[in-house]
Amino acid sequence: PETKTSLIHIKKNRNKIYYSEDYFFSGIKSYKNKLFEYDLEKRKTRKLFEYTGEGLPLITQNEIFFSKNNEIYSFNISNDQIRYLWKGNTPFNYEKNFVYYIDENNNIFKKLKNGTGAEKIYTIGKKAKIGGMPVKISDEIYLFIILKPKLIKVEFDVEDTELELVNVITKDKLNISKI
Fold first, then answer.
1. Using CA atoms, how far apart are residues 29 and 87, in angstroms rounded to an integer?
2. What is the mean pLDDT of the segment spanning 71-84?
3. Cα gap 22→10, rounded to integer Å
């Protein structure tokens, strides 16, 4: 698609390509972003919605989960309907009808899409700044990008990041270099 924005992160789903206006590791949960859809058959681009956060929202086969102003929503791909789900930020995984997300205190939760069955999985740390989206590797292992500011800088950039691999059951931080 022709765009003035960077296509660093894109995702193809069926005959459509989804991309965001911008992507950078700022750790700012209030960063405003826009999601675009490019239809490969019609060769047309359209803006779907605005959302809060970095990179792409959580795109599944039938829905797109996103956060805006500390609330999580679902966008139905087949009928363009947006539905409010619950309070939270950064939905990052969808599995067996559970949406995995972060709350305002950096707690990782999983909750059934219908809003029931919430379970707190792990706390990253209230003062930690998270870049991008966490990755669920298995039921026990999650990968986070933690932003570590350098003392002489006010803003974060990619060089200020550390990967944190965590066993959320035992709460152990795993040494990536030994894996």
1. 13
2. 96
3. 11
Q: What is the percent of the chain with per-residue pLDDT over 90, rounded to a whole number?
A: 41
CA distance 3 to 138: 36
Residue type, 71: E
Mapped onto helix, strand or coil, the DSSP state of residue 90 is strand
The region, left, alpha or beta by phi > 0 then psi within -120 to 50, assigned to residue 151 is alpha
Phi then psi dihedrals of residue 103, to 5 deg: -95, -175
30: its two tokens: 């209030």
Count CB neighbours of 11 within 10 A. Answer: 14
Query: CA of 133: how far to CAs of 17, 56, 58, in Å?
Result: 19, 9, 9
- Mean pLDDT over residues 117-136, rounded? 84
